[in-house]
Every structure is written in structure tokens, then in C-alpha cells.
């Protein structure tokens, strides 16, 4: 990823190893410059160099605000509004579909890496992958446009407006996918010691999502899946002692919609 500053202003250039329908994904959320929410606008696509040039979006991510101790429950309203905007975008039926079977395969792949990485991998992770996969397959899904990698670093806030970045994984998917992803990442930040009111934030986001769409009980499965995926991923990253177990504890609580995760029931 390169940041360039030329006579046409600041831009971001992303160079890929191969084209995974990149231009279609990045062009799938059209917006006008004066819209409250926008996606980063595409300036150029070079298929020979597999290089994408997009606008440089200004703003501050919720992640940066939260790290600075400036977490505010009003952030939940902004994120809820963004989710509603994403899921109301016109659907391009030619886009890739990402559903329960794909998520289950992702968990299985992450599990294999998890077990190779740890000297004494816990059998709990394998059991949870099986349980979460079964719950995902049992969901009724309302298919919408999804960012698919939505977390607090992918959103840039500028007052009451904002921009969505990094659209490499955009696909058609269940409406609970993006919601579960952001809820799990907010909880992860709190587990890592970021001072933020995670229960209030996730509660308001979940309530707005339930009011906006029929999630049909699927939010428990998709939130649990992201929490578990994060546990499997963090086995390969530097992490505080106990983080993996706490993420798996949260996975179980999300599946049961118990404790603070009661919000997932709607």
C-alpha cells in the first residue's frame, strides 16, 4: 500500500498479487461526495500491474479514539447507521457470495494453523469450531451487500460524516455477518485493555441492527464465529496470557446469548 501526493491530491495505491475481482468489489458501494457515508472512491485500476488507485480519505478511526480513551456510546449510533447504509446498497448479483459454508471452511483453516502453532493446542478450540459451524449452517440468512472485514480500523469518522475503507473482501452475505464482526472486534479491544464501554456500545449496535433487519437468530452464530476466529488468529500473534481462553469463553457466551451477550437475541 502506497500513499502518494501529486497534482491531483493525495491518493492511495494498492498493489495486489492477483486480481480477486478487485475493481468490482471496490466499485460495489457507489456514493456521492456529499453523502453522510461514503466508500473510498476508485480513481484508477491497472489490470496489468494489478494496481488500484483510490482516494485518500480523511478522518479518525474509532480505534484511534478508543485507544486515546475517548470512547463514547455515541460511536455506537454512528456504527449502527453505517451498517444500515452498507446493507441498503444496491446488490450486484455478479459479486462473490460468502455464506455459512465459506465461514466454516475459514474456521477449519484457522484451526489447522492454530494447532500447528501452539505446543499444546486445546481440544476446546476444535469442539467450538464444530459447534459454531453447525450453528452457522442452521441459520436463516437474509442476503445483503457486506463489507466482510468490518472493524473499528476500517471506518474513518469526520464529524457526523464518515468513510468506509478497505473493500477488498466485499461480497454478498448474511446481514448478521458485518454486525457480528464489529461486535466481536469491539469486545476484543476491551479484552486487550482498551478503555471503552464495550457492553453499551455492542448493545446499541445490536439493537439498531435488529430494528433495521430481520436477523432471524443468526447474530449469535456470526458473532460467536468472529470471536472464535479471532482466538484462532491470535495464536500466531503476540498476545497477553489468557487472551485466547477469554475469547473462547466469549464465544461460548455468545452462542448461548448469555450475560452481556443477551443483546444478540434481539
Q: What's the short story on this structure?
A:
By secondary structure, the protein is an alpha+beta fold. 45% of the residues lie in helices and 15% in strands. The protein has helices at residues 22-26, 62-67, 74-87, 100-117, 123-137, 175-191, 198-212, 218-234, 243-256, and strands spanning 2-6, 9-15, 37-39, 42-46, 51-55, 143-146, 155-158, 161-164, 171-174.
Characteristics of this structure?
single chain; 266 residues; alpha+beta; three-stranded mixed beta sheet
Share of helix, binned = 40-55%
The helix count comes to 9
Which series of helices and strands comes N to C?
EEHEEEHHHHEEEEHHHH
Number of strands: 9
Question: How are the secondary structure elements laid out?
Answer:
Elements: E1 2-6, E2 9-15, H1 22-26, E3 37-39, E4 42-46, E5 51-55, H2 62-67, H3 74-87, H4 100-117, H5 123-137, E6 143-146, E7 155-158, E8 161-164, E9 171-174, H6 175-191, H7 198-212, H8 218-234, H9 243-256
Parallel strand pairs: 3-8
Antiparallel strand pairs: 1-2, 2-5, 4-5, 6-9, 7-8
Could you characterize the architecture of this molecule?
By secondary structure, the chain is α+β, with helices and mostly antiparallel strands. The mean pLDDT is 94. The longest helix has 18 residues. Helix 4 runs parallel beside helix 8, helix 5 runs antiparallel to helix 8 and helix 8 packs antiparallel against helix 9. It has nine helices and nine strands.
Amino acid at each position: 500500500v502506497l500513499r502518494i501526493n501529486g497534482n491531483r491530491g493525495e491518493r492511495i495505491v494498492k498493489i495486489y498479487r492477483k486480481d480477486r475481482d478487485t475493481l468490482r468489489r471496490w466499485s460495489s458501494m457507489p456514493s456521492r461526495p456529499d453523502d453522510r457515508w461514503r466508500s473510498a472512491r476508485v480513481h484508477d485500476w491497472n489490470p496489468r500491474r494489478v494496481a488500484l488507485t483510490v482516494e485518500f480519505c480523511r478522518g479518525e478511526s474509532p480505534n484511534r479514539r478508543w485507544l486515546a480513551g475517548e470512547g463514547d456510546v455515541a460511536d455506537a449510533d454512528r456504527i449502527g447507521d453505517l451498517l444500515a447504509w452498507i446493507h441498503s446498497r444496491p446488490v450486484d448479483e455478479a459479486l462473490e457470495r460468502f455464506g455459512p459454508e465459506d465461514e466454516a471452511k475459514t474456521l477449519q483453516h484457522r484451526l489447522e494453523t492454530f494447532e500447528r502453532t501452539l505446543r499444546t493446542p486445546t481440544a476446546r478450540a476444535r469442539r467450538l469450531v464444530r459447534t459454531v459451524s453447525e450453528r452457522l449452517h442452521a441459520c436463516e440468512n437474509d442476503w445483503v451487500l457486506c463489507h466482510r472485514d468490518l472493524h473499528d480500523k476500517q471506518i474513518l469518522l469526520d464529524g457526523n460524516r464518515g468513510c468506509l475503507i478497505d473493500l477488498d473482501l466485499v461480497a454478498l452475505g448474511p446481514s448478521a455477518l458485518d454486525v457480528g464482526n464489529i461486535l466481536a472486534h469491539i469486545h476484543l479491544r476491551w479484552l486487550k485493555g482498551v478503555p471503552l464501554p464495550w457492553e453499551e456500545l455492542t448493545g446499541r449496535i445490536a439493537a439498531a441492527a435488529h430494528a433495521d433487519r430481520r436477523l432471524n437468530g443468526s447474530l449469535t452464530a456470526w458473532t460467536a464465529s468472529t470471536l472464535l476466529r479471532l482466538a484462532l488468529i491470535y495464536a500466531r500473534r503476540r498476545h497477553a496470557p489468557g487472551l485466547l481462553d477469554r475469547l473462547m469463553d466469549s464465544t461460548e457466551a455468545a452462542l448461548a446469548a448469555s450475560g452481556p451477550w443477551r443483546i444478540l437475541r434481539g
